């Protein structure tokens, strides 16, 4: 169950959705200027290393 877990402890079960989830996570962290600890940063880097180099689009809130 996702509940309030961060990326270091939970990813979508379907591997095909993980890259989008991770990029959305990063966009939200940037948008709200949220901090990232070392464990979370390492999890992000590990997951992004499994994603293709497909450009992503981040919709900015207005």
Provide keyphrases for this structure.
mainly alpha; 2 helices; globular
Brief write-up:
With 62 residues, this protein is mainly alpha-helical. The protein is 40% helix and 0% strand. The chain is globular, with a radius of gyration of 12 Å.
Q: How is the secondary structure organized here?
A:
Layout: H1 18-31, H2 38-48
Descriptive overview:
The protein has 62 residues and is mainly alpha-helical. The protein has a domain of 31 residues. Helices cover 40% and strands 0% of the residues. The chain is globular and about 25 Å long. The model has no long low-confidence stretch (mean pLDDT 83).
Number of helices: 2
Rg: 12 Å
Overall 3D shape: globular
- Helical content (DSSP H or I, runs of 4+): 40-55%
Query: How many β-strands, per DSSP?
Result: 0
- Biggest β-sheet strands, sense, barrel: none
Q: How large a portion of the residues is in β-strands, by DSSP E?
A: under 5%
Oligomer: single chain
In round numbers, the mean pLDDT is 83
Regions with little confidence, pLDDT below 50 for 5+ residues: none
User: Which structural class should the secondary elements be placed in?
Assistant: mainly alpha
**Gap between N and C termini:** 32 Å
* Elements, N to C (H/E): HH
